[in-house]
């Protein structure tokens, strides 16, 4: 069995340049998909799970002390209760709480924070996809 030799420096350089030339296309594709699937909701009102998660959640709207965020589930129900959803997301709840403090209960700015988080996640996906392309 014959071994394949290591690639020359010239071969490595051409492979890297191909990928770097197409990085912008991958990033643009991921950013466009993320924007198209989310931007249509920016001008809407709070709906569906926004109401129990943000509007009526006592941890988010400031009725409970901040320390309760770390004891309650995402929906504001104590984790120890049997009917708790057991979805523990204190950082998301803190983000919603900060948005409500800063913007009151206005949907548009409250939705921009998750959009920025998704933008960062899209960038991470772009980096991952760029590594998969030979």
- What can be said about the biggest beta sheet? none
Q: What coarse outline follows from CA principal-axis ratios? A: elongated
Query: What level of helicity do the residues show?
Result: 55-70%
Structural class designation: mainly alpha
Polypeptide structure, described:
It is a single chain. The protein is 57% helix and 0% strand. The chain has one domain (13-132). The protein is an all-alpha fold and 134 residues long. The longest helix is centred in the first third of the chain and has 30 residues, at 9-38. The radius of gyration is 22 Å and the shape is elongated. It has helices at residues 9-38, 50-55, 90-103, 107-132. The chain is built from four helices and no strands. This is Transmembrane and TPR repeat-containing protein 3. It comes from Leptosia nina. InterPro entries: TMTC_O-mannosyl-trnsfr (IPR052943).
SSE blueprint and pairings:
Elements: H1 9-38, H2 50-55, H3 90-103, H4 107-132
Helix pairs in contact: 1-4
InterPro entries: TMTC_O-mannosyl-trnsfr
Protein name: Transmembrane and TPR repeat-containing protein 3
